[in-house]
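Q: Sequence in, structure out?
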Amino acid sequence: MNLSQVFERNPSVADKLFPAVFVDRDGTIMQDADYCSDPKQVQIFPGVPEALGRLKAVGFKLIIITNQSGIGRGLITMEQYRAVEEKVLRQLGPDLIEATYFCPDVPGQHSSCRKPAPGMILQASREHQIDRSRSFFIGDKEIDAECGRNASARTIRVQTGFDRDTSGTIADWVAPDLAAAAKIIVDLANE
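A: Exactly. Output:
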């Protein structure tokens, strides 16, 4: 028997986990259009595809996390949501986004997935082998920062949505846009 095989280090579960950047969609990746139901309304912010590409290049999985209460309210259909999401992914570019998670629940009802609850991040972490302690959440609303915190990820609040006042935020960092948020993350990854 070869003892080197017996005592060979077995990779731990942590060795198989990857860092991720969880990103809100409306107001962060694209212009926020209330209850966006038409792909023609999709307007990706300038510099977003390139910024996401830089994050992916340094080893982060990119996962979209989005509340879509318009579905639960009956304002948009699943088909409309899917058409908008397809347009977003097409405009961002191929092979950039690992996965998209959405929650159709309306505010005020018990929900484990609606941000600020961490359900979508927890599910994505299980399904995509994510190490949340090495991950980030970028979003334009305070509930995004709360969601990231609730999932033990570091958080960056961007000032591109409807509510640009970030005074009093619980986010770890504030950035003017997703490109600046990506720079913060890339700089930290290169330390």
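Confidence is low (pLDDT under 50) at residues 1-11.
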